[in-house]
Amino acid sequence: MNAHVSFGASDFLPMMRHRQWAQTTSQLVLCRRVIEETSDVKTFVFTSPTDRMFCFSAGQYVLMHLNIDGAAVTRSYSVSSPPTRPLDLQITVKRTPGGLVSNWLHDNLRPGDEIEIEGPLGSFNLDDLPYEKLLFLSAGSGITPVMSMLRALTDRAAEQDISFIHSARTAGDIIFRRELDALASRFPNVRVTCVCSQEDPTWRGPTGRIDSQMLLTLVPDLHNRTVFACGPEAYMKAARACLDAIGVAPSQYHQESFGGSSSPQLEPASTIPSSVRFVRSGIVHNCLPGETLLEAARQCGVYVPTACQQGACGTCRIAKLSGEIAMDDLGGLTPEEQSAGYVLACCSRPQGAVSLDL
Fold first, then answer.
1. Average pLDDT, the chain
2. Which pLDDT score is estimated for 225?
3. Domain parsing of the chain, residue ranges
4. Which of 12, 100, 252, 311 is the most exposed place for a label (fewest CB within 10 A)?
């Protein structure tokens, strides 16, 4: 007769921790599957070659470190899979015309390939925030982090009242359309509305761009909801303006910047002689007029992780020890990070002598 072996929590938890993904470090992951979501959107499914589990919060992103044509390139991508399914990690990528990384991923990444990722990163998540009713707003590929949130909530059979409004160009551009329909059908507390911005004879749903009247029609109790929004820069500005006009309190609104139409508009270069001291590296660099902290670091061979290079994602945040900088960002730092002395290297320029904790 085989002996019965039982495992208690004291045995199980250390075993699970040993298998967990080491957070905020670089890891090799193995591409297991590529899913065609729409004509220009693919989901890449990764697992750990060492059979570790991925530990992250719904809404966070990872950095992908790639080598394209001999050049090291880093980009940030939100995780579209939920943390409730820790054995794989998925990112969903829209092909961008002229986009270096998105086109490379679509054309080259295949099952069996290994790439390096770093993370998880980002403060856009459901953790530690009180909410009874939720509204998810997304447009285009900005659906990825809020889809991770929706999947996590429905996996846990959460009872919160959830409204989800997603904007796309046409019906054929709606990412995860069948899954969204299935979740709304399966869970009575989940209501999903897709809005197409362009005329489409096959589409029977709402058409146009979101405005205050549309939001109030679709979600009459909007004032009682916590809002999580993600999309292109123009969409985010429109969404925030609508919510402000309706009177939604800023404390109820949380957004993730998801790319931008342009880089931050920097102020004219300072004429003050400027320098950057990289304290831990023991390097002092005399800056050219208009040079950013990121450009100075690259000139000196000092590594600074970076992704969007628009001041939106927060990946390149570094601690400023002394000195003054001019920063033209797109909201990549939280108020707490700014109060703690962090700056964004990609869009900050020294105004005189500056010391950094690098």
1. 87
2. 95
3. 17-121, 133-256, 275-356
4. 12
